Amino acid sequence: MSEHLTTVASVAVDTRHFIGGERVAATETFTDVSPIDGSSLGEIARGTGTDAGAAVAAARAAFPGWAATPPAERARLLEAVAEGVEKRLEELAVVETHDNGALLRSHRRGVMPRVAHNFRFFADRLLKLGHEDFATRGHTQHVSWDPAGPCVLITPWNAPLLLATWKAAPALAAGNTVILKPSEWSPLTASLLADIATAAGLPPGVLNVVQGYGPEVGAALVAHPDVRRVSFTGSVPTAKRIAASAAAHLTPVSLELGGKSPLLVFADADLDLAVDLALEQYDNAGQVCLAATRVLVERPVAGEFTRRLAGRAARLRQGDPRDPATDLGPLIHPRQLEKVDGFVRRALAAGARTVVGGHPSADHPGGDDPGDGRDAAREGGLYYPPTLLTDVAQDSEIVQEEVFGPVLTLQTFTTEDEAVHLANDTRFGLAATVATGDHERARRVTARLVAGTVWVNCFYVRDLRAPFGGSRHSGIGREGGDWSFDFYCDLKTTVTAP
Ligand code: NAD
Questions:
Q1: In which band, very low, low, confident or very high, does the pLDDT at 130 lie, cut at 50, 70 and 90?
Q2: How big is the CA angle at 193 (ends 117 and 191), to the nearest 5 degrees?
Q3: Is 281 a pocket residue for ligand 1 (Cβ < 6 Å)?
Q4: Where in the sequence does UniProt note compositional bias of the Basic and acidic residues kind (predicted)?
Q5: Does the beta carbon of 155 sit less than 6 angstroms from any atom of ligand 1?
Q6: What does the pLDDT look like over 346-366, one tens digit per residue?
Q7: Please, which residues have CB within 8 angstroms of residue 87's CB and are 6 or more apart in sequence?
Q8: Strand (E) positions, 357-399?
């Protein structure tokens, strides 16, 4: 086997960059480690500024040809990519689980089918884009969506291929060329995507994949003057660096960032449903940007709700994400475990009370038996138990900052005004969930919430036609549906005299 191939659960993955249709080796590499058991998954190319320059040059060279390819042909090729994803769905699911520790059953059933759908949806949507004509004093006005040029797409580790294709599919459909830089903590499926795109017949240079560290190759890509768009999903501190760097060349940026979303539970809600919704927030071990980690409960039902949620959370099974019986896998990285643990320890020191979970070590200050979660954590590895904290102050760190782990806080409220105030009182605005049996209340409350997406009596139902993004520090811009094309295109109005 080539020194540039690694094998993950029998799937061969090329560890090099993919630039201009060729595999490109790097002089230096970094080790990709599985969060499941700390085993090495391979030595991955560690990109440099030179690699970034080569990838942008390849994307630039391929751009005129791809932009001039008729939309129907671009759509056909992206359909072929979708088929390629479907053909290799099991391999993609298995590799992604080894790489980022999220549940294999979720990758199989939900995530990878959605990856294929991303390509299919935007290929189809492109053909339906309204190329509007209207007349002014006899002059015809024609609006067109022109592709912008090379687009840099930078993605995080919590949903690697899902987020990469959510950006790449519309960017490519619109006629742009792409340089994808996946997270160094989950680099593998991006490499498989390059293989799939090649097999589907995507011309060289249209999709490029560059591996490596964000502050090295990622920063070099963003700073490159020939890049026409930067779409970034990740943390707020990185977003600030990217926005500042892109500003030097006035490169438009789309920023999809973190959150601290609320789940509002009113006394008139179906409590079983409300508990289900709260429990869903532990999915992917809480490493979900949209997670409603601040549970706000109307006082009369707070006791009953807390008892039910605590009972269910304590029974969640934590362990190997390949096991179909597992509810929560590991955190991504020792640094993430340390970060989550630090947040909880500081919250407890500040007076928070553990209802469930907390640090699994013997000296943790108490709480109910977390059951299977604690057992799994004791086995070692990166397992942090599902945790529920109460007695938290609104201005405390645990309520205001994104933990990105399986940690929920629970606060109570007495009036609708207070609920809305608490819900909106952070610097984020990504999402919110409302549980209520009163439609009129749902309408009133959602109108006042600051959030890119509000779910009423449901969670995580997403349609690609809808805009997606966050307000305040949760991001700038919206992608999804035609909003993706608005971002990845230069809109042009052509006025023709009679
Ligand atoms: P991160 O900001 O550390 O890294 C994200 C990506 O940016 C990685 O590919 C990294 O290599 C790259 N990067 C780092 N520094 C860079 C630099 N200076 N220049 C260019 N690129 C750089 O984020 P993360 O820890 O990987 O992801 C977790 C964060 O992502 C959380 O805050 C989460 O809420 C957020 N997130 C948001 C959404 C959304 O749609 N809003 C979705 C998923 C995750």
A1: confident
A2: 150
A3: no
A4: 361-378
A5: yes
A6: 999 999 999 999 975 433 333
A7: none
A8: 387-390
Do 159 and 226 lie in a common domain?
A: yes
pLDDT at 192 over 90: yes
Residue 132 has pLDDT above 80, yes or no: no
Ligand 1 pocket member 184 (CB < 6 A): yes
Asked if 97 contacts 107 with a C-beta cutoff of 8 angstroms, the reply is yes
Mind telling me the catalytic residues? 256
Task: Mark whether 281 and 430 lie in a shared domain.
Answer: yes
Q: Cα(282)–Cα(385) distance, rounded to whole angstroms?
A: 10
Which atom number of ligand 1 is nearest to the Cα of residue 259?
Answer: 34
Tell me if 278 is assigned to some domain.
yes
Q: What was the ipTM of the complex prediction? A: 0.98
Residue 186 CB–ligand 1 contact under 6 Å: no
pLDDT confidence band for 1 (50 / 70 / 90): low
Task: Write down the H helix ranges in 334-371.
Answer: 334-349
Cα 397 to ligand 1 centre (Å)? 21
**Per-residue pLDDT averaged across 141-163, rounded?**
97
Mutate to test the pocket of ligand 1, among 48, 154, 163, 166 (most ligand atoms within 8 A of CB): 154
Beta bridge partners of 298: 413
Which amino acid, 268? Answer: D
Residue nearest to atom 23 of ligand 1 (CA): 234
Burial annotation 257-270 (CB, 10 A radius, 16+ → b, else e): bbbbbbbbbbbebe
Q: Based on the domain organization, do 251 and 357 belong to the same domain?
A: no
Answer for the pair 328, 444: CB distance below 8 angstroms, yes or no.
no
Q: Are residues 481 and 391 in the same domain?
A: no
For residue 297, CA distances in Å to 61, 126, 281 come to 56, 43, 15
Domain that holds residue 317: 262-362+380-456
Give me the CATH number covering residue 344: 3.40.309.10
Percent over 70 (pLDDT), the chain: 96
- Asked if residue 240 and residue 283 are part of one domain, the reply reads no
Helix residue ranges, H only, 14-111: 49-68, 71-87, 89-100, 104-106
Ligand 1 center–CA 236 separation, angstroms: 8
